[in-house]
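Section 5: illustrative case.
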């Protein structure tokens, strides 16, 4: 491994022998990702690894793993290869020039990536990961969707994990922005998890790609997702965390990003809000604060200088002119900043008569500043506004 981590393999084409040997390697039970990386760094290829003397393997990994390495599961590897060919799943090994360069540089890159979609080439493009809670607030969902769209318009690939909540909003935003998005899964590509995101996954395949390090047939086991998280951060120049609680898988992604030398960014939440306790702690510990696309671009300015093919080609959200609203409308929007409210609660907070309040709410809905949310409440969107001169 070089000074920055990562496995350097001898250049090779993804011929059938290379593919079979790599697929056999990942099917060997008990062989962790770090051990895989160490063995590949030493032997330079899976084929050379399997040709090694048993005694040499025993010295490196112990008797049990050496026995398994000496008897690779070739039949299973052949079944995996044929399945991928039948279902248009691309196999990208570490030896391939198509392997994402940022991911190759981490300490334990997967020996092979399973990928499917129309924009697999986007794996090598400058990317930003956007992750967060599976139960975001309305404001968090709107922010994530808008940020995903702005990142896509700026020419950046949006990477996330296809989970409910922030992940799904990030993917949808990128799709709405007309850019590439990469969904990293914690199971084989023969399964979509969660199942309710099958339609979203199909959309991502049309203008982005789905990837995983797990072979077909691998279920979405709990311990797969921390492994998945290192790919999310490893593919990206930086990670934006939106609404993470104090104990959150997104914080694992933030830690992995730091270990991989990636930029860590966080969206601030309301003081004392449990949904943002983790992100607010990240900010206290030195994460870059993100309130919009401009903050992300500023934070990534240095690493983006090394990507000559990348060019920011979009107007960013922060540069859009705020919409003028009346003073009473501004009072309503201010009252909705912390959380959605009922009509009665808004009347109490704003001290507006109900008839006037209804008129202002109707106007704000038409202008896209607020919307109805479950429970008969009104929630504020993330549009910008200013008080009109009177």
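Designed sequence:
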């Amino acid at each position: 491994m070089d000074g920055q981590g990562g496995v350097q393999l001898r250049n090779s084409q993804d011929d059938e022998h290379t593919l079979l040997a790599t697929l056999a390697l990942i099917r060997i039970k008990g062989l962790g990702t770090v051990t895989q990386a160490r063995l590949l760094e030493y032997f330079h290829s899976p084929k050379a690894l399997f040709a090694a003397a048993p005694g040499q393997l025993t010295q490196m990994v112990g008797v049990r793993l050496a026995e398994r390495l000496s008897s690779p599961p070739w039949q299973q590897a052949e079944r995996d290869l044929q399945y991928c060919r039948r279902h248009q799943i691309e196999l990208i090994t570490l030896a391939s020039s198509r392997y994402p360069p940022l991911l190759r540089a981490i300490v334990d890159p997967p020996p092979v990536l399973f990928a499917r979609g129309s924009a697999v080439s986007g794996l090598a493009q400058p990317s930003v990961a956007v992750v967060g809670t599976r139960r975001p607030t309305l404001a968090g969902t709107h922010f994530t969707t808008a940020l995903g769209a702005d990142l896509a318009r700026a020419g950046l690939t949006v990477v996330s994990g296809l989970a409910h909540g922030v992940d799904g909003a990030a993917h949808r935003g990128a799709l709405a922005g007309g850019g590439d998005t990469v969904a990293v899964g914690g199971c084989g590509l023969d399964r979509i998890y969660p199942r309710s995101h099958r339609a979203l996954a199909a959309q991502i395949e049309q203008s982005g790609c789905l990837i995983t390090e797990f072979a077909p047939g691998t279920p979405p086991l709990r311990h797969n997702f921390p492994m998945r998280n290192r790919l999310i951060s490893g593919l990206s120049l930086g990670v934006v965390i939106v609404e993470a609680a104090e104990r959150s898988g997104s914080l694992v992604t933030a830690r992995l990003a730091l270990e991989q030398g990636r930029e860590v960014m966080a969206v601030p939440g309301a003081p004392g809000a449990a949904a943002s306790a983790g992100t607010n702690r990240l900010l206290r510990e030195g994460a870059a604060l993100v309130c919009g696309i401009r903050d992300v671009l500023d934070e990534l300015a240095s690493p983006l200088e090394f990507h000559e093919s990348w060019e920011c080609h979009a107007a960013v959200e922060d540069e859009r002119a705020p919409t003028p609203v009346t003073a009473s409308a501004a009072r309503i929007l201010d009252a909705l900043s912390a959380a959605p409210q009922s009509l009665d609660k808004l009347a109490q907070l704003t001290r507006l008569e109900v008839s006037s309040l209804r008129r202002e709410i109707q106007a704000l809905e038409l202008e896209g500043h607020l919307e109805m949310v479950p429970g008969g409440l009104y929630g504020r969107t993330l549009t910008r506004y200013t008080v009109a001169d009177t």
